[in-house]
Specification:
Blueprint (H helix, E strand, L loop, with lengths): L2 H5 L1 H21 L1 E26 L8 E22 L2 E7 L7 E7 H4 L7 E2 L1 E2 L2
Length: 127
């Protein structure tokens, strides 16, 4: 290790943090938040639920647990698939809560807004 690195390790950390900050800001520069109209809302169901089962070990030693998973047949609501449209383009978003209102704020890539209108794209919901 060089003497410079040993005396100033904070410079390396600051340079790394600055690089990460610039990269993260670049992601938001390439996206837009738009108000898309809700066309349809479909519930997403799963036909089973996976539960975590924790039991004490047979040796009954303190702090010893057997962990397993059990699959139960159960129709459970996992979320909603929301079909959206914005200026003739179609988007699909998945949400845990049912959307309220007739519009939804979504974050989409700037490149996707310039594509053909018949392409279905995924979008991130802005909460």
């Amino acid at each position: 290790m060089r003497k410079d690195d040993k005396q100033h390790p904070n410079k390396v950390v600051l340079a790394l943090l600055a690089t990460l900050f610039l990269l993260s800001n670049n992601v938001f520069a390439r996206t837009h938040v738009i108000n898309a109209s809700i066309d349809s809302v479909e519930p997403i169901y799963m036909n089973y639920k996976i539960e975590r089962v924790i039991k004490p070990c047979q040796s009954m030693a303190p702090g010893c647990w057997n962990t397993g998973y059990q699959k139960r047949v159960l129709k459970s609501l996992q979320g909603y698939r929301v079909k959206l449209s914005y200026e003739g383009q179609q988007f699909t978003a998945r949400m845990r809560a049912k959307p309220e209102g007739d519009q939804l704020k979504i974050r989409v890539s700037k490149d996707l807004l310039d594509q053909a209108s018949k392409v279905a794209m995924n979008a991130a919901v802005v909460y």
